[in-house]
Amino acid sequence: MAILLTGGTGKTSTRIARFLQDRKTPFLLASRKAEAAGPSGKSATNFDWLNSSTFEKPFQHKFPDGESISAAYLIAPQVPDPVPSINAFIYLAVKHGVKIFVMMTGSLVEKGGHNVGKVWSHLDDVGVEYTVLLATWLMENFSEQRHLHSIKNESKIYTACCNGKIPFVTAREIADVTFHALTENKPHDTMYRVLGPESLSHDEIAEKVSSSLGRNIFHIKLSEEQKLQCLLGSDRPEYLVKLLASLEVAAANGSESSLNNAVKSVTGRPPQNFDAWMQQIRSLWQ
After folding, report:
1. Which helix or strand (DSSP H or E) is residue 14 part of?
2. I want to staple 164 with a disulfide (CB 3.0 to 4.6 A). Which of 40, 60, 76, 251 is the partner?
3. Are 120 and 87 in contact (CB under 8 A)?
């Protein structure tokens, strides 16, 4: 048994790889620049969702003990319509003997709905064993992207989330749930909402970071239009900018306010709270 991890240089796949490595389960990281940018010492292959000629490459990889890929972790590319490419790859992967798929996506996706919701329904149609992980927002948004520089350099967090609460979760928790879904003998064949242990507003996050750093951090509440203008100054494509702004407005209206115990029920341990996570990374903001 070997496991394919698409999005091979991303937050969750690199962490899943650590779980697999600890268990001595063979795996292959796959992304556009995996061979050059993948973690040192981990098997990797170049793979591009937008170039179907690369789809065969993972199945041509020679594992040390002759294993073949039997499970795959799917992360959609950031393009307006990833569905045709992912569905085509699923079809090919099944032909190569892949029996288990785990797809991670955003918490608001619905089966058969827009974008990867159609991949979800395709997995149903194909008749394979699969698990869909609907993940809420990452704590790493504050430490690795989005808010890192504004906290460090401006002592500010800019969002259109207003007072909306979000059950932030760590990438490690998502990786842990994924690891279990990919490797356990008992089929999961379900959907999990992967949520953190507490719902926090960005005002509350700002208060916690302020207390930890000993300086005032302010949550600057933006309108959707103001958020769009902020994001348009980045190198993100316009469709993604609009999506990110709309997700923040949805959060302001309560779309992310629910809680559950999925992480503990799958992994056997509760998810880490924001205070504990913050103490591990607070030096990045100083």
Report:
1. helix 11-23
2. 251
3. no
Residue reference for tokens 């591990």: 280
pLDDT reported for residue 34: 74
Name the DSSP class of 273: P
pTM of the predicted protein model: 0.95
Spatial separation of the C-alpha atoms in residues 48 and 34, rounded to whole Å: 10
Residues paired with residue 11 on neighbouring β-strands, in sequence order: none
Number of H helices, E strands in the chain: 12, 9
Query: 């040390």: which residue's tokens?
Result: 64
* Cβ neighbours, 10 Å, residue 113: 12
C-alpha to C-alpha distance for 70 and 75, rounded to whole angstroms: 17
Q: Which residues pair with 102 in a beta bridge?
A: 73, 131
From CA 200, how far away is CA 195, in angstroms rounded?
12
Q: If residue 190 lies in a helix (H) or strand (E), which one and from where to where?
A: strand 190-194
Query: For the chain, what is the mean pLDDT?
Result: 95
Give residue 184's pLDDT.
94
Whether the CA torsion 253, 259, 260, 264 is positive or negative: it is: positive
Band of pLDDT at residue 37, cut at 50, 70 and 90? low
CA 115 and chain centroid, separation: 16
List, in sequence order, every residue forming a beta bridge with 27; answer none if it has no partner. Answer: 3
**Cα 133 to Cα 147: distance, rounded to the nearest angstrom:** 24
The residues facing 149 across adjacent strands are: none
What type of residue is 240? L
Count Cβ atoms below 10 Å from residue 181 Cβ, excluding itself. 26
Residue 151's identity, in one-letter code, is I
Length of the chain, in residues: 286
Are 132 and 103 in contact by the 8 Å Cβ rule? The answer is: yes
Rounded Cα distance, 158 and 199, in Å:
18
